[in-house]
Amino acid sequence: xxxxxxxxxxxxxxxxxxxxxxxxxxxxxxxxxxxxxxxxxxxxxxxxxxxxxxxxxxxxxxxxxxxxxxxxxxxxxxxxxxxxxxxxxxxxxxxxxxxxxxxxxxxxxxxxxxxxxxxxxxxxxxxxxxxxxxxxxxxxxxxxxxxxxxxxxxxxxxxxxxxxxxxxxxxxxxxxxxxxxxxxxxxxxxxxxxxxxxxxxxxxxxxxxxxxxxxxxxxxxxxxxxxxxxxxxxxxxxxxxxxxxxxxxxxxxxxxxxxxxxxxxxxxxxxxxxxxxxxxxxxxxxxxxxxxxxxxxxxxxxxxxxxxxxxxxxxxxxxxxxxxxxxxxxxxxxxxxxxxxxxxxxxxxxxxxxxxxxxxxxxxxxxxxxxxxxxxxxxxxxxxxxxxxxxxxxxxxxxxxxxxxxxxxxxxxxxxxxxxxxxxxxxx
Length: 428
Ligand code: ATP
Ligand code: MG
Hints:
Elements: E1 7-13, H1 26-36, E2 40-47, H2 51-63, E3 68-72, H3 83-91, E4 95-97, H4 99-112, H5 121-129, E5 132-134, E6 138-140, E7 149-154, E8 157-162, H6 166-184, E9 190-198, H7 202-213, E10 220-226, E11 229-237, H8 241-255, E12 259-261, H9 267-278, E13 282-286, H10 292-298, E14 307-312, H11 316-323, H12 327-333, H13 338-351, E15 356-362, E16 377-383, E17 389-395, H14 400-419
Parallel strand pairs: 1-2, 1-3, 3-8, 13-14, 13-15
Antiparallel strand pairs: 4-5, 6-7, 7-8, 9-11, 9-12, 10-11, 15-16, 16-17
Helix pairs in contact: 1-6, 2-3, 7-8, 9-14
The structure holds adenosine-5'-triphosphate and magnesium ion.
Adenosine-5'-triphosphate is lined by residues 12, 14, 16-17, 22, 24-26, 72-76, 81, 145, 147, 163-166.
């Protein structure tokens, strides 16, 4: 299917996003969601919430005639929430109260209220304000907050106004705006393949994958690294399905057991599902990550079905008293060592009566490194249901925060390898 490129401009509204009080989370999210649709974003503007700034921005953008204009922020009930009113006056359109939108907004407000007292006049005005829509326009319910999103078409540009709070915007984009865009534009079908990898650095993944891409015209590959992980994304037009499948097969075999998923699933969810399926339990013994592994695991709803708990064994004393690490092991090999990671995992599994135990001990820095044990050196232990313990060693780059974050992911990856039988691929 061929079609004109669908060009989008995004305006993120909020003075607090310009003076550094808060980081914009909406522009990037929107751009990523639109990219999945094959819609390119030409520009993201950050604009303060003042009448003149917003008015000028909209007028300039509409002269460039984008296919889509998305504005976010300032749909709320208060007098500083002025986006809808300014857009309406700039476009010369009327705002009207939509009865269904009003019912929706009332229901949302009621769901947040615990008392039965009647609403003040100001609250009632706020409700009506959040339920106005463009005359002959469209509106989208807000399932997280209150204010509805609205959209209208002006001179061939689809204009969307969305709430500012990121969770509200994200839900509305995924469930309302994306489907709306799909019905309004003939979007080129794009095929996407995802490989999520753990344990390899971006250069290593690139070094393996890039040589395979040589003459694959029409197939885009991108690498998305985060501490400990790298995603590889392949995209191709629908008619190149066969070549894409071929490339995907080659990539799968060079990346091997580093690939933990080929779908949009994260490590804590993946290992959690497997533990639950097996009816097995996990505990953690963490030194340099100080509970980071436990935290990530428990972000998954239902994790109490397989996660028993963990010990933050930061001081050697705790490693000895609660995990049974022997003083000689600490003295001879040091807290950051193969032997201590081993003893921590074994001790946690036994003392906490678990099937599995993960241990982490490392030097997150910036101080504490030496020639033999540099900053970034981390040992991971995994005690398995049969009582065997595997230890894996890494030297991680980056600052304290990224070393700790990568360590959390790599600890989960070691568990993943234990659960799915690819532990022999570890470099011990
Ligand atoms: P509300 O009904 O909550 O007032 P709104 O649609 O009027 O929503 P704003 O008033 O602009 O939106 O922002 C509400 C909250 O969301 C503020 O705390 C604001 O800092 C935050 N917020 C708005 N836009 C963004 C953004 N792009 N990135 C991160 N936070 C944002
Ligand atoms: Mg507001």
